[in-house]
Amino acid sequence: MQELPSTTAPHPQTAALQGRLLAGENVVATLEVDLDAHGQFAQGLIALTNARLLAFEPASGTWSDHRLEPGQTLKLSDHGGLAFLELFSADKRLARWRFTLACNPAAVRLVDAFEREQQRLAGDVAVEQDEEGEDSAFDFGEASKPPSTWVLLRLWRFARPYQGQLLLGFALMLGATGATLVSPYLAMPLMDRVLIPFQNGQQIDPSLVTLLLGGLFGAALVSWALGWAKTYLLSLVSERIAADLRTATFEHLLGLSLEYFGNKRTGDLMARIGSETDRISVFLSLHALDFITDVLMLAMTSIILFSIHPGLALATLVPLPFIAWLIHLVRDRLRTGFEKIDRVWGEVTNILADTIPGIRVVKAFAQEKREARRFKEANANNLHVNDRLNKTWSLFTPSVALLTEMGLLVVWGVGIWLIAHQSITVGTLTAFLAYIGRFYGRLDSMSRIVSVTQKAAAGAKRIFDILDHVSNVPDPVNPQPFENVAGAISMQAVNFRYGSRSIIRNLNLDIRPGEMVGLVGHSGSGKSTLVNLICRFYDVTEGGIKVDGVDLRRIKVTDYRRHIGLVLQEPFLFFGTIAENIAYGKPDATRDEIVAAARAAHAHEFILRLAHGYDSLVGERGQGLSGGERQRISIARALLIDPAILILDEATSAVDTETEKEIQRALDNLVKGRTTIAIAHRLSTLRKADRLVVMDRGEIVELGPHDELIAKQGHYWRLWEAQARRVDAEGADDGGLMVVAPNPSAHTVNA
């Protein structure tokens, strides 16, 4: 039965699931759901094994299981912000679960794994068990291939620009190591030609003593100077390698598509770019340097030992095979253990990244204790994983020390026997013991570096997991120039799938330059997905989208998006001044241009009322400004870049009626002369649109002006009537209402 080691805050039913697994049964994928059968928030669990689909229902506190059989299907759908997972046999539905869209990425992975298991059962293809990604909430067995130490060699691409400094550092290291080996060698004549003759009644030769002591002092001084220069130079180089690695990772991350970020946690990515690169920097500047010094010291010391006396040198090497066996035994455990620690620490960081930006929501719903409990559980799991690893490491280090002490005893015994038989002198044994002290000290240091090497390897693997990821929205090899954009958009037979879900189906639409088109439909009909495809945040699965007759995939992404202005439902403002936020898309804009954009966005008046006007600081994510003020700043930001294509995604849905009028006046200035695509649930805001595109389940079901669609009394008319009835029923004018298409199978969630 498969063991279920924990890598994140443990799910309450992890132990129960482990107890339900049969002999030879392995978990393939898991899904942690956040709603029960009644739509109440609760923590449930669905687990797919190679034989069954098991589920824990939090409402009843019971487990159910369904044996995998050929012909079964697992269907994932969503409606109104909720997702549904349904298991069907050939003739009926076997089970149904619901959860919020926050769980959707894991649900997609579960469905994909289920389809592979069905292929395996049908015998169509040989399907390998898919390992869960590192961001899964569970780690059933090894989540991914353990990091190999060889991954550290890939850092050479970042070290290559500094190879001259590295070569100089190596030369300094060689000289410093050689200087440290002079002192034990001078101990032989000091013992045999000065101290022992003096004990036997001879006079001390002052010139010889001065020469020998001067040699010792000179060697120490040279060793210090070379060691300082080596450490300083290589520390500078390692910091620059780490800085280049951090920059390259962040730049590569910015170039990845939105799909990548949809399956990642912010805290985990921050931990990778921050703490992992710091760990690699420390390894390069300190531990890698120590390791190379240790290797040089061992090699040089071994040569000197064999030159002094081969028999004693062989006695010195007695512990080496045992230490090598211990290192091999412990290395694999450390390798997997440190990767688990990284993932667990990533979960701790994730909770911080979620809670601190959302502190207003936490306090508004009085969930401080809940978040503290989440952090405590993640921190306790981090402690548990570290304790398990420390148990292994705490046994390894004293064992190496014991073996080196045993080796020292062997050398003492053999040395005394050789002195008794007059094979060596006391001075020779003294020098030998001094060298052995250095030899065993470096051996112990090398054994300790196993730990930091595996830590650095785990960190490097997590960094290269980002660098190796190829964007799903790549730039063309030979991009086509894209200037003087008119804004004609043509969509031909467009299909788009996200995971196993088909979202856009065979969509055809032509938008004329300067035309305003409104996208209408109930939640989940594909409006936002279509906008994302037009912005090329995702690439179409089939078909194509052309702007001014050029396929988007032939244009460089940055060249294309430079001509797009985007105004979102929840505008994002960065920490900085009002002026910096307005000029975000055009950093070199003059103050006059910024003020002109703010005036056109009807933001100039409220900006002047702020304490420092355009130089007033905006808090993180726009804290300190109202929703309408943030929205008008985002409109000014879009106006400043003067885009040919404008995307309005629910730009007025999150504000009151009076603020909406202000924003609408700003939008009227924004849409003039631009191809505009607007999404709105308040249908009244789209009456000025030239045409309305009515979508349902990823398809266009109606197309035309407002009056024409009303006259047809079709999908759009039903949406319009439903909104009008709701407005009348609530005695309001359409403020803040979301239109939902009448659907007898619509699902509700109990609040």
Automatic annotation (TrEMBL):
Compartments where found: Cell membrane
Upper classification of the organism: Bacteria, Pseudomonadati, Pseudomonadota, Betaproteobacteria, Burkholderiales
Keywords assigned: ATP-binding, Cell membrane, Membrane, Nucleotide-binding, Transmembrane, Transmembrane helix
PROSITE patterns: ABC_TM1F, ABC_TRANSPORTER_1, ABC_TRANSPORTER_2
Membrane topology label: Multi-pass membrane protein
Alphabetized SUPFAM superfamilies for the sequence: ABC transporter transmembrane region (SSF90123), P-loop containing nucleoside triphosphate hydrolases (SSF52540)
All copies of domain ABC transporter, residue ranges: 489-722
CDD domains named in the record: ABC_6TM_exporter_like
Protein name as annotated: ABC transporter ATP-binding protein
SMART domains named among the record's database cross-references: AAA
Gene Ontology MF: a single term: ATP binding
InterPro entries: AAA+_ATPase (IPR003593), ABC1_TM_dom (IPR011527), ABC1_TM_sf (IPR036640), ABC_transporter-like_ATP-bd (IPR003439), ABC_transporter-like_CS (IPR017871), P-loop_NTPase (IPR027417), Type_1_exporter (IPR039421)
Annotated ranges, domain ABC transmembrane type-1: 167-455
Chief place of localization: membrane
TM spans (from-to): 166-188, 208-229, 280-306, 312-330, 395-418, 424-441
Species in which this protein is naturally found: Pelomonas parva
A Pfam family hit: ABC_membrane
